[in-house]
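FAQ: What does the model actually see?

It sees only this:
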Amino acid sequence: MLIIIYGKENCPFCTKAKELAESIETAETIYIDLAKHGMTKADLQKTVGKSVETVPQIFVEGIHIGGFTEFQAKMKAEDVIHD
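And it is asked to produce this:
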């Protein structure tokens, strides 16, 4: 499972998303720090395909999931993680 997380430094939900993704044994995680990669909000919106106001923005197998809450819910629903 390929998980791509777009986030930024000092973002607690970005950190949580990265930690959750890295805890999934069957996942390959790519973390893209927006500032370090020179990405603007407009670049992120183009990547996501819609207006976004927050990070992280997360893709699983190329499909945009949303932020941390949506990512966590999807992983629980697919029985990849447990409480």
